[in-house]
Amino acid sequence: MKWAIIGLIVVLISCFIYLFFLYSGIQESRTINYQDSKEKVLSKTNVSQIETITEYNGEHQFHVISGTSKSGENKIVFIPLSKKNNELTVIEESEIITRQQIKDQWKQQCQNCELIDITPAMENNEPLWEVTYIDGSDRYIFDYLSIYDGARMQQYRLKSIFH
């Protein structure tokens, strides 16, 4: 009985170690190309300081970098991860509707909703805000709004089948 317990403990510890390295590997592979994207933005745009880098997965995959130029202008840069398209899309934050304005607009339209996130998105070569939330009917909503004026471009509603 004593050896069975020791064996079980060894197996559990081995599983935890394996899961830790598996998780670390997945996280590293997810962010491995971030450095390439950072270098590309610093060399091909006037962005001199990078604040955040995220990934957007829609019809095509993009790295989305928020940064600042030497003159202090805030910018959002979309870097396509497709081998076919190498063109960066640079957006001046002074020309767009802000994340806070999108949030305020969303609050007015959906009082009984739970906000999940607001992130930059790119669909059909059009920069958008992706607003994800759960509405009053317990549906998971993806709302795609113009980054320039907040107009709705597309919306997906996913109905929960498990309660």
Compact description:
The chain has helices at 2-31, 34-44, 99-109; strands at 47-57, 61-69, 74-80, 89-92, 114-123, 126-134, 139-146, 152-159. With 163 residues, it is an alpha+beta fold.
What does this structure look like?
With 163 residues, the protein is an alpha+beta fold. The chain has 2 domains: 34-95, Roll (Nuclear Transport Factor 2, Chain: A), CATH 3.10.450.40; 99-159, Nuclear Transport Factor 2, Chain: A (Roll). It is built from 3 helices and 8 strands. It has helices at 2-31, 34-44, 99-109; strands at residues 47-57, 61-69, 74-80, 89-92, 114-123, 126-134, 139-146, 152-159. The strands form 2 sheets. A 4-stranded antiparallel beta sheet has the order 1-2-3-4, with helices on one face. A hairpin with a 5-residue loop joins strand 7 and strand 8. The chain is extended. This is Cell wall elongation regulator TseB-like domain-containing protein. Residues 38-80 form the Cell wall elongation regulator TseB-like domain. InterPro entries: Cystatin_sf, TseB-like_dom.
| Overall form | extended
Percent helix among the residues?
A: 25-40%
Q: Stretches where pLDDT falls below 50 for ≥5 residues?
A: none
Helix count? Answer: 3
Question: What is the number of beta strands?
Answer: 8
What portion of residues belong to β-strands? 35-45%
Q: Specify the biggest β-sheet.
A: 4 strands, antiparallel
CATH topology of the largest domain: Nuclear Transport Factor 2, Chain: A
The helix-and-strand class reads alpha+beta
Terminal CA distance reads 42 Å
Q: Which architecture of the largest domain would the CATH scheme give at its second level? A: Roll
> What is the CATH C level class of the largest domain, in words?
Alpha Beta
Arrangement of strands in the largest sheet = 1-2-3-4
User: What is the N-to-C succession of helices and strands?
Assistant: HHEEEEHEEEE
- Please state the CA-atom Rg, rounded to the nearest Å: 21 Å
The whole-number mean of residue pLDDT values reads 88
- For the record, the count of structural domains works out to 2
